[in-house]
Design goal:
The chain has two domains: about 140 residues, Immunoglobulin-like (Sandwich); about 325 residues, TIM Barrel. It contains eleven helices and 22 strands. The protein is about 25% helix and about 25% strand. The strands form three sheets. A ten-stranded mixed beta sheet has the order 2-1-22-19-18-17-4-20-21-3, covered by helices on one side. Strands 5-6-7-8-9-10-11-12 form an eight-stranded parallel barrel, surrounded by six helices. Strands 14-13-15-16 form a four-stranded mixed beta sheet. About 10% of the residues have low confidence.
């Protein structure tokens, strides 16, 4: 019997809703393997066929990035509303059944920038010199430039001591690139400083562990190594240089006693399939695997590496969506489930890490803080409304945001009086905006937040919660339910084969992914994640169509009907 379902309908009438649908499997029931198109008298039928002998990768976890921006927002919230802060961290990282029942995602991973990224107030590394003077002995190394980040991670570790920490530099120190102006934007490490950069990474790992109690378990050597034209810290690192630095860093990590720290190659988009292969061709023994991002190409770009170097780690380590242009939440859910849960995981990804864990959002959908000329409408699993962090953050990046608002001629969202969960948008022909789902997407019922808050000028009425779990959170919550260990001491889930009658269609209306989790007693918990996107592209809400599903498991068939949306269904069997 299917006894659990996590539901996110396309119109948000159900948002992270947990139910027991009590759907029975029927022995030797008729199964329409090819499905059925709808007619005036027949419903659309889609078949889902479990192929349990097709066993693939074992999953290792899920998480998000803890940037300076995330830490600034969360520490301000901690000072102003500690109950909300504690609830956010527990919903994100507490793996206990109690918090999962409240809609928790149960993340067990974070990704840390080594130094600054594009999300924060300032550019820096942990070994900067005023005039770009070389410092190969790292005498200026100072990890205390990120105090709020370390406090946030320490608080997360109190909730989840088994946290897996990955770290990636956006730029090495400017002096390693020969930049006497001290700029971190662009350039490449000079070969004479490649060893010093390896020392820098090892010192980061060592100092973070010794002074902050934070253990880094995975490194990449350069975030997005082929993107060096950004207006934020970045650096080009070609494959041959990454192979050399990887070999040097591996030797230095081992010599310092950090043999267990793994190194991932690449950490960039799907559209360059040869880069990680080139790195491994030169230094396969020094790298554990590869890391992928979503901003270019498509998930099939992972396959050439899988074929060249099977059985190596494959992690998906960054993706973000946008808050505006009618994307949030449903269009973003479709993209994340299609590209990541169905796409990247089908090409062997064992871990899924999205970008910023939390950002602050205003009533027009702009998110902060980030450096000038960087993303102003990037999403995060948790967005905190700009009336909930207190006066400390008032006006941050406001001039830059206001100028962008004026260029785009945005207007604010209109609230429905009847508390409809699917908010409509106020608009002009050139203005599209974020609709805020205030009831269903707010945090759990564990605490009553936002009591007595000053909400003047805000889209959030005083009685509402001040935080919103976005489509990114929805993606992680569904994946977490499916792959998390079901019992203490058991491993994370294994991906298992599943085919649908839509798989061969050029525009499938259904996508599915299947996982099996051992319960340790000879039985397993089976989880199928289903994306039902028969919404006629969202152009006409009245035409969104239900689909009748037939799920075949061994010689049993379960039949059920789902509207457009994302769903995770579970059952127990041997």
């Amino acid at each position: 019997v299917i006894d659990f379902m996590l539901s996110n309908t396309w119109n948000s009438s159900q948002y992270l809703a947990q139910t027991n649908p009590n759907i029975q499997f029927v022995y030797n029931a008729t199964f329409n393997e090819d499905g059925q198109n709808s007619t005036d008298t027949q419903p659309t039928i889609v078949s889902i066929n479990v192929k349990e002998r097709r066993q693939y990768q074992k999953m290792v976890g899920l998480g998000a990035g803890v940037t300076d921006a995330t830490a600034i927002i969360l520490q301000a919230l901690k000072a102003n509303r500690p109950d909300a802060y504690e609830e956010i961290l527990n919903l994100c990282f507490n793996e206990s059944p109690e918090w999962i029942a409240k809609g928790g995602a149960g993340m067990n991973m974070i990704r840390l920038p080594i130094g600054a990224s594009d999300f924060g107030f300032t550019e820096y590394t942990y070994d900067d010199t005023v005039d770009g003077t070389p410092d190969p002995t790292l005498s200026n190394f100072d990890i205390n430039k990120s105090p709020k980040r370390w406090q946030t991670v320490q608080d997360i570790l109190k909730i989840n001591p088994g946290l897996i920490v990955m770290a990636s530099p956006w730029s090495p120190p400017a002096w390693t690139k020969g930049n006497t102006r001290g700029s971190l934007q662009g350039g490449s490490i000079l070969q004479q400083y490649e060893g010093a950069f390896g020392d820098y990474l090892v010192k980061f790992v060592k100092t973070l562990k010794e002074s902050k109690g934070i253990t880094v378990k995975v490194l990449s050597l350069q975030n997005e190594p082929l993107y060096d034209g950004a207006k934020y810290p970045c650096s080009k690192m070609l494959p041959d240089q990454q192979a050399r630095i990887g070999a040097l860093t591996r030797q230095k990590l081992d010599a310092a006693g950090f043999n267990s720290v793994k190194i991932l190659a690449y950490d960039h988009n799907w559209d360059n399939t040869e880069y990680p292969i080139d790195v491994f061709d030169d230094a396969a023994e020094d790298f554990a695997g590869v890391a992928w991002h979503c901003y270019g190409g498509d998930p099939s770009g992972q396959e050439p590496f899988n074929e060249a170097y099977p059985d190596r780690w494959v992690w998906f380590t960054e993706c973000t969506r946008i808050t505006q242009y009618y994307e949030e939440p449903w269009e973003n859910i479709k993209k994340q489930f299609s590209q990541i849960i169905k796409g990247s995981i089908s090409y062997n990804s064992q871990a899924v890490i999205l970008w910023n864990l939390a950002l602050q959002i205003d009533k027009e959908g702009f998110t902060v803080p980030s450096l000038p000329q960087t993303c102003r409408n990037c999403l995060a699993p948790i967005v905190v409304y700009d009336n909930s962090t207190g006066p400390e953050l008032e006006g941050m990046n406001r001039a830059a945001i206001d100028s962008q608002k004026n260029r785009r001629s945005l207007t604010g969202p209109t609230l429905n009086n009847d508390n409809d969960l699917f908010q409509m948008f106020s608009k002009r022909d050139d203005a599209k905006n974020l609709g805020v789902l205030m009831n269903a997407a707010s945090l759990s019922d564990a605490s009553a937040m936002n009591q007595g808050a000053d909400n003047e000028g805000s889209v959030i009425p005083p009685t509402r919660d001040t935080n919103y779990r976005t489509s990114d959170y929805v993606t992680l919550a569904h994946l977490g339910v499916a792959i998390r260990p079901q019992k203490d001491g058991e491993r994370w889930a294994q991906r298992v084969g599943v085919v649908t009658s839509e798989d061969d269609h050029s525009g499938p209306v259904v996508k599915a992914q299947l996982f099996r989790n051992s319960l340790g007693n000879g039985s397993s918990r089976w989880s199928v994640i289903i994306l039902q996107q028969y919404d006629h592209y969202g152009y006409d809400r009245a035409k969104a169509e239900d689909i009748t599903f037939q799920l075949k498991f061994r010689n049993y068939v379960a039949t059920f009907v789902l509207p457009p949306g994302a769903f995770t269904l579970q059952w127990t069997a041997e």
